[in-house]
Amino acid sequence: MATIKLAYLGGGSSRAAGTMASFIAHGEEFQGSEVVLIDQRADELEVVRTLAEKMARDAGLDLTVTATTDRRDGLEGVDAVLTSFRPGDFAMRQQDELIPMRHGVIGQETQGPGGFMMSLRSVQVFQGLIADLDDVAPGARIFNYTNPVNIVSQAVEDHTDTPIYSMCEGPMIFWPSILRTAGLDPERAEVIMAGVNHNCWSTTHLYDGEDIMPLLEQAWDKVQGDLTVPVWERRMLHLAVAMQSIPADYFKYYYFGEEHFREAQASRLTRAGVILSHVDDYWAHYREQAASEHPRLDPERSRGGIHELELAIDVMSAYYNDVPARLPVNLLNTGGALPGFDEDTVVEMWCDVDGTGAHPIEQKPLPHAVRGITQQLAEYQRLAAVAAWDGSRADAVRALVAHPFVPTLAVAEELYDDLAHANAAYLPDRLLR
């Protein structure tokens, strides 16, 4: 077992209780370790610390949990940093979703202009984090869940020597839902996905060892007119059949953009609004359980459930315990592991992770039918990383206009200025001029 000192930046967030439950579920792999919860919200930090301390005690674990609002102090001497935070909280996410819609553009947390603004806010925090690590924990490694994970990783890789692995369950969870829509058993399938984060496609898709596409085609013939199947499930199955590759869920915004935009306009709440309507209940539940001698988190009253960020913990365990595991990781495409993408571009792909790091398995190229849009999104990712790290308004506009959601230069300029005004408290002057 690995004994490490782990800092959790975002340890007072609404996801943090579930993350600590996940870490404790893996606690035997980290006996004797210390977790330092770091956040700006002192009251919420104390709730999560109390919960984690009691859950670890009940599990019989030797695990120390501390909390601080002083980031630099909390990072002193750490081996690893788990990053999962949201600058501006859900209020700014709501603006990321609403403002683009005023310009006729989809607003979404990680995609397009909304995701771009999230990346600008997030990277500012990472710059301060890495400066602190250079001073007080120069050997630390970052395990990142802060969105958009691909742009954050690209910016850090381009400008620092700090090791960073970014994670997302997408390649593990996108395809089973499409198979279930088709009436197929995911346990009988082998599906490998690759691309850029939230925008990956299947390069291998087998069912009982044979190509799955004929089965998906047969299923589509049956369900395309079946109104008992939810519309988004039918659309994603349709897209898989049309492209002959199983897509990430987020491609619904690209291939069914007009439909999504109209439906979003008709909704009373954005996704951020829906989450905000539940946040008070999450914290009421966490406080109730923190006051209990034997806390038990209810997945229905916990943000994201009770096994949050488990993939990051799996990657940490494989690395620090040197126990090989095959897991999806976002990292540089060193050696051209994923054909069709530059070596200095961060891509998402399955890797073998062990005590020496994350090593891509042999990757097949994306099918030509879907390679172009994914390459376009990879180029946008690189431009966004430039703007976020040290760029200007001009760099930001160049990034936005490179994104498929943004139709013209005029829209990019007007939309960026509108978003930058709303985000002024979170952005450096160089992005506001």
UniProtKB/TrEMBL annotation:
The cofactor named in the record is: NAD(+)
InterPro entries from the xrefs?
A: Glyco_hydro_4, Glyco_hydro_4_C, Lactate_DH/Glyco_Ohase_4_C, NAD(P)-bd_dom_sf
- Pfam families per UniProt: Glyco_hydro_4 (PF02056), Glyco_hydro_4C (PF11975)
The alphabetical list of record keywords is: Glycosidase, Hydrolase, Manganese, Metal-binding, NAD
Q: What is this protein called?
A: 6-phospho-beta-glucosidase LicH
Report the cofactor remark: Binds 1 NAD(+) per subunit.
SUPFAM superfamilies listed in its UniProt record: LDH C-terminal domain-like, NAD(P)-binding Rossmann-fold domains
PANTHER family associated with the record:
6-PHOSPHO-BETA-GLUCOSIDASE (PTHR32092:SF5), 6-PHOSPHO-BETA-GLUCOSIDASE-RELATED (PTHR32092)
Question: Can you tell me which family this protein belongs to?
Answer: Belongs to the glycosyl hydrolase 4 family.
Q: Which domain of life is it from?
A: Bacteria
Domain Glycosyl hydrolase family 4 C-terminal span(s) in chain numbering: 193-406
